[in-house]
Specification:
- By secondary structure, this protein is α+β, with helices and mostly antiparallel strands.
- The chain is 44% helix and 23% strand.
- It contains 3 helices and 5 strands.
- It has a 5-stranded antiparallel beta sheet.
- The longest helix is centred in the first third of the chain and has 32 residues, at 2-33.
């Protein structure tokens, strides 16, 4: 009988110890979650991906012609990316250029066949 009591006490002690470890780890996990995330640093790949999501849809909306891979790209690798497309056979445009700002994630300039359709900088208040 003494052996059974010892085994029962040992199992209960292990269970209590497990619950205590779980509770301590959970509290430490909650403290770590309240820390502020590191500031997001723009990467050229993320900026290119953002532009590749927004610009083709916008160009197709304005021209009626789908666009796929850009023929040229330009970026300062920190604040903006500009993608350019050349219209192929049957396309309703010859050239299209689209600039996306990383800070806002918005299209700041759209030019199709030398016609400026969006230019956020031109609409900015002058100081």
């Amino acid at each position: 009988m003494a052996k059974k009591q010892t085994i029962i006490i040992a199992v209960a002690a292990v269970a209590v110890l497990g619950f205590l470890l779980f509770a301590v780890n959970k509290q430490q996990g909650n403290k770590e979650q309240t820390k502020e995330p590191a500031p997001q640093v723009p990467s050229p790949i993320a900026m290119q991906g953002m532009a590749n999501q927004k610009c083709p849809k916008l160009i197709q909306n304005k021209t009626g012609s789908p666009v796929y891979a850009p023929s040229k790209s330009d970026t300062d690798q920190k604040t903006y990316v500009t993608l350019e497309w050349t219209g192929g056979k049957g396309a309703n445009f010859k050239t299209a250029s689209c600039t996306v700002l990383f800070s806002s994630g918005a299209v700041s300039k759209l030019v199709i066949d030398d016609q400026v359709l969006i230019d956020v900088a031109a609409n900015a208040p002058k100081s």
